[in-house]
Specification:
116 residues; mainly alpha; 3 helices
Length: 116
């Protein structure tokens, strides 16, 4: 393995690892702090973050499996381009859900009026 490939491998693994770690920490914060103070918003945030975490792992797995499953190196670029495009679209959707839930989080809660 060349030093360039080693450096790229380490950089990629570090990038994916940090991304997954920070998403997991975000999930823990929402599951504890946000859910305690805004239980109406926490499920949407958890859904968005959970889907983002899941699709990040699936995208990483796809990048590892594509070269092994293809067999034909000539198709690698096309398949990887499709994988990248699908990953970008899915992440855009989960981030849109995350933005929507943050907007809900920032809006004032509706106070419940108990009958007298």
């Amino acid at each position: 393995m060349s030093s360039t490939a080693l450096i790229l491998g380490i950089a990629g693994a570090t990038s994916w690892g940090l991304s997954l770690l920070l998403t997991f920490v975000f999930i823990l914060v929402v599951a504890t702090v946000v859910r305690r103070h805004r239980p109406d918003v926490a499920p949407v945030l958890l859904l968005a973050l959970g889907l983002d975490f899941l699709f990040t792992v699936l995208s990483f797995a796809a990048q590892l499996l594509i070269p092994r499953l293809l067999g034909d190196v000539s198709l690698y670029a096309e398949v990887q381009a499709v994988n990248t495009l699908v990953t970008a679209l899915v992440h855009a959707g989960t981030r849109g859900l995350l933005i929507w839930s943050v907007v809900r989080l920032a809006s004032p809660t509706h106070e419940r009026h108990e009958p007298v």
